[in-house]
## 1
Amino acid sequence: MSGEFIAFLVLALIAIAGGVLMINLTQVVHMVIALVFTFISIAGIFILLSAEFLAAVQILIYSGAITIIMLFGIMLTRHNDTSEPKSSLGKRLLILGGIAAFAISVYFGIYNLEFPNQATDLHVENTKQIGIALYSEYVIPFELTSVILLVALIGAIVLAKKDDKKEDNDK
């Protein structure tokens, strides 16, 4: 076993554990922290794949910005902390079976996967390749994504303001 394989296994287990914890925890802030562990471990996997730019973006955007936005969303919205009733054993077995079926299908889907020759040189100047592709071929989708994110931010502010006005009218 090489060190890279062991690092991949550790990072993959942390990512899976973070995802499972996020689903099973009851406190929303704890869920966000588990999600951060998942994001950081995925950034580590990107580093193992020689995709340093994607690792940096993963840490800056997902582990940083998205997590902060989620925490602000939690703080700005009203939510009830009522717990859901525990699911039955049959439902849990059905979910476990679905997860196992998904894992088996993914395994067989990538078991004999072969990449064309083009994929062998992607790690050479990958940041430059991403920049050229992003700002030459995909300028319009990039800008549209920026506009959509801005509209979502404005919508979140409007919804938060409506809750404040409703609370003031109730008093």
## 2
Amino acid sequence: MKNILLIDDDDIIQKIISKVLERNGFNVVSGGDGKEGVDKLNMMKYDLVITDIMMPYLNGFEFIQELRRHPNGKDARIIIFSSITNEDAIRDSKNMGVDLYLSKPIVINEFIDTVKTLLG
């Protein structure tokens, strides 16, 4: 079973995405901000990390920097989903090694297909 870390400060998005991923056979651990995401890195090794950008304490970019330093996240695939769609944010994410940048709102069936493709 593939492990996914989901970080988003919107509880509703967190619950919906978690349930859909779990129904598709993934183990999902979630957190509400980047600081909590860093804490969750100590739990297990993750195959995929899904994060928002605009969050309290540590934003998504700061969280990704921490993720890449941690043994349980340094090799994880990364998806950003955010309402920020400017070219600078997208370029910065690519420079950080993000696999995919999705704009909110997402189409859930396409999202699941993308996750399955990324994780093989």
## 3
Amino acid sequence: MLRRDHLGMGITLGFIAPLIGMLLYYFTKFYPISLSDFFYVLGRQKTLISGIVSVSLIANAVLFTIYINTRRDLTAKGIFTSTCVYAVGALILKFFL
């Protein structure tokens, strides 16, 4: 399934990879506390959003590079689109909420 070149698959992968990146950030920096406490701290301290977004978008950059190098351009376009949506959402969350 991951060998196909499909825009929808790229969008799906582009939204799942940042979640995996966020969990990776949680396990490396905040693991002794619970996941619900992590989200509570994240809601209180907006400065953490920058670190989480950077790790999350690195996960998308890795996927994007893999799909570009294997010439699956529609999937890479979906990953790039979801990366842009994710980044704009994170900026709105950080600066306006």
## 4
Amino acid sequence: MVSALSTVFSANAQSANLFPPASVVGFAGPTSTGAEPEIVATAPRAPFLSDYFPLVHPDIPLGGNASFDSSKHWGSLSPAISNRPDSFATYLVNSSALIPPRCELLEVHMLHRHGARYPSSIETVSTLGARIANATGKFTATGEMAFLTSWKYGLGAEILTPFGRKQLFDLGVSWRIKYGHLLDKFPNGTLPVFRTTSQDRMVKSALNFAAGFFGIPYENQYHQEIIIEGAPAGVAGNNTLSPTCKNLIVSLLNSAAPIAKWQSIYLANATARINAQVQGINFTFADVGNMQSLCAYETVAVGYSDWCKLFTVEEWEGFEYTSDFTYWYGFAWGAPTAAAMGVGWVQELVARLTHTPITVWNTSTNSTLDSNPLTFPVNQSLIPCINSIGIASFTLGQRTVMVALNFTSFAKSGPLPVDHIPVGKRSFVASQTTPFATALVAQVVNCTDSSANTKPYIRWLLNDASIPVDNIPGCGKDEYGRCPLDSFVDAMKTRVEEINFAPPNAPGA
């Protein structure tokens, strides 16, 4: 008698014979490769990401402002596009991803957010879906809300959406075109080490990046380091890409009341307007806020969302501002734990910039991985790190790292009020600083002056726009955002000493 399991094995074997891989089929034709590209040093203009293909752009906001693109105002739920070169300082108008004149690229370091994902488990958009599903047949909807009678909640949770996978693949391709030339600096037989964390969307982001950067198959072209995220009790889990902090939950809980207050202000008209078109369900301010989130999540998941057309320009600006102050007080300059959570990555950066192994283990650095030159090389010219976002991860990556790096230009306009949008340009806007697929990049360059003297510098880009570093001791203003490398390293060593990771006689971060 043939078992069902034997039948499966037999079918799989037959399939393998019918569908052999390319390596078995052969006949590949010519496969010679060309020189590695370095567009940031060879092109007259920098590449500029400005669209979200293949997503359908949201409908015109209620009121008919055709020039307003709400997808650029979804805060941390916006897909990343290139920021204008002068986004963060007016004197940086000549700055972009291009290497400054008379400079040679030596190294590139990147801290990157994962691509677009489904809602996280702690978000409440699914509860709105459940409320509507439970009221099926018990409500009527007219006008702009007429779609609700056939709408069903269909989003997953936590993992990358198809568009999110594309974002990371495209990033890998763009990095190969921008920085592929750095691969020539690796000695024969030495493979790059890319890092990520163990959460599914982090690993898949890293693998899609690798597929774009190396092409398929990519498995034997680099080493993928996966650091445990959310380690259970008794398992060593120090992780600079996803540091943990018991005081973080306090920051998040403290933001709940201000969010509710702000929603009652900026969504007052929208809630009344929507409830007037639906009989049988009474939507709260929080429900209507979730409708705005559904617009963003459905768009990046299935390409289009009917929820987007329900809101005015002012209401989308209010939604974006909710993201701004949530992240300001949860993970950035308004969060007491932010610098302490980001300092471990800064220690790793100093080790790489100075090509000196870490020897002191007093933060979120991992003494097992970071002390091993195979898992933490300090002489690698290409270093991408994919980190996460949400309650237990990139929370805590890029935004807290920017605080630890002392990029105070983002804090220039000061603490954000939670009952109104400040007048004028804000220095911290989540859709510019932390959208899906954000890339924080450090370029190390060697520059020659008019007297033929050479000097190494470091410059920082956030989604292709230079970050001003003139507040950092020894840096000063520079139209390309450069800082002498020695000065920057000295300032970061001092900064690390200033940040109190675990205060004596007090709860540790």
